[in-house]
């Protein structure tokens, strides 16, 4: 199974690239992790932010592969504990489809992405900086895999 993170935003700081790469490399061959950067919509003081969100939505939806299960990261989505994430990942594997996890831009995901999503997941009720979300997401996916596989990385308290 392939996990693809489709994230709005390009040219991340070095610490983000390094953090994501650390966890991406640790993922096993049977559950690879890929990050795809999506160019953000144009924003300016006079531009309508909704137009930028629609443009980002067009780009995200065009990047999806037809058979992928789509998970939208959304503050209003369901909050999952680590064991719940691991269970979801197990279900994704058993379902036989690859998974696309969508991360929106500064104004969130286009409503079409949210409507199309098979699942909506909230990492936190807090507003998180988009670069940090990438690192947190990579780490949580690795942690979920480690729990599923019995790897010592995840230790219950």
Automatic annotation (TrEMBL):
Entry keyword annotation includes Phosphoprotein: no
Major location category of this protein: cytoplasm
UniProt keyword list: Cytoplasm, Methyltransferase, rRNA processing, S-adenosyl-L-methionine, Transferase
Compartments it resides in: Cytoplasm
Enzyme Commission code(s) on record: 2.1.1.177
Database matches in PANTHER family: METHYLTRANSFERASE, RIBOSOMAL RNA LARGE SUBUNIT METHYLTRANSFERASE H
Entry protein name: Ribosomal RNA large subunit methyltransferase H
Encoding gene per record: rlmH
């Amino acid at each position: 199974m392939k996990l693809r993170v489709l994230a709005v935003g390009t040219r991340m700081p070095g610490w983000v690239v390094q953090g994501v790469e650390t966890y991406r490399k640790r993922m096993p061959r049977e559950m690879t992790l890929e990050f795809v950067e999506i160019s953000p919509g144009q924003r300016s003081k006079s531009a309508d932010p909704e137009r930028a969100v629609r443009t980002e939505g067009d780009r995200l939806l065009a990047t999806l592969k037809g058979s992928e299960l789509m998970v939208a990261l959304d503050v209003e989505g369901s909050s999952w504990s680590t064991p719940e994430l691991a269970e979801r990942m197990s279900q994704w594997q058993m379902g036989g489809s690859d998974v696309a996890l969508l991360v929106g831009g500064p104004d969130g995901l286009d409503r079409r992405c949210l409507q199309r999503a098979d699942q909506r997941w909230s990492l936190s009720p807090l507003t998180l900086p988009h670069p940090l979300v990438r690192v947190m997401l990579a780490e949580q996916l690795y942690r979920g895999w480690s729990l599923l596989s019995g790897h010592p990385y995840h230790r219950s308290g």
